[in-house]
Design brief:
The structure holds two protein chains of two kinds. Chain A has no helices and nine strands. Chain A is an all-beta fold. Classes of the chains: A mainly beta, B mainly beta. Chains A and B meet through strand 3 and strand 4 of A and strand 4, strand 5, strand 9 and strand 10 of B.
């Protein structure tokens, strides 16, 4: 499985933008880039995913480098509720299968200060 | 929204007991997954299923089995629970690979 590398932790202040980086230098052409977050005592929550183009949704934006070897999750205005562990994961669509299992790394612990 | 429901939030079992963890999803997803999460080890895939009666081993299947008799239900079975199976167990489902997973809230299992 292709691997991702994320910083262990990051800090932000409330209402400021947060840029969470992820390196995936061995990404293949069939890998989707997924981001999940996990709040304390809860299961992971899907945030966003993309293949080649930048993506926006109500939770966040995903900026994907042109060579796809890195990506950045952008939280436009951090709130205290955004404090969580953020996981960047590659999901493989190759082989004609639909399941494309996710392999989680250690993620980035985001602390948001009031 | 897709809902993934795990039958128990907390469970305490004795060593050697047979344990069933149940997971139900309500959006007709083909794919279902069981993970366990431990401090310092992150989330690790135990088993997954991409269709009824189909199953595939994940990264740590030893000591576990699964059952998928109906599309909406995926059960994780600990044939003979041991203390090293004390963990948080998370179920997830998804449809196509270009969509996200939906996770349940987890079952915290303690084996004493």
């Amino acid at each position: 499985d292709a691997k991702t590398t994320q910083p262990n932790s990051m800090e932000s202040n409330e209402e400021e933008p947060v840029h969470l980086p992820c390196n995936h230098s061995t990404i293949s052409g069939t890998d989707y880039i997924h981001w999940y977050r996990q709040l304390p005592s809860q299961g992971p929550e899907y945030v966003i995913h993309g293949l080649t183009s930048n993506v926006n949704n109500r939770m966040a934006s995903l900026a994907i480098a042109e060579d796809r070897k890195s990506s950045t999750l952008i939280l436009h205005r951090a709130t205290l509720r955004d404090a969580a562990v953020y996981y960047c994961i590659l999901r493989d669509r190759a082989g004609g299968t639909s399941y494309g299992k996710l392999t989680f790394g250690q993620g980035t612990i985001l602390t948001v200060h009031p | 929204d897709v809902k993934v429901t795990q039958s128990s939030r907390y469970l305490v079992k004795r060593t050697g007991e047979k344990v069933f963890l149940e997971c139900v999803q309500d959006m007709d997803h083909e794919n279902m997954f069981w993970y366990r999460q431990d401090p310092g080890l992150g989330l690790r895939l135990i088993y997954f299923s991409y269709d009824v009666k189909m199953k595939e081993k994940g990264d740590i299947p030893e000591g576990y089995s699964v059952s998928r008799e109906k599309k909406e239900r995926f059960s994780l079975i600990l044939e003979s629970a041991s203390t090293n199976q004390t963990s948080m167990y998370l179920c997830a489902s998804s449809d196509r690979v270009d969509r996200g997973y939906t996770f349940g809230s987890g079952t915290r299992l303690t084996v004493v």
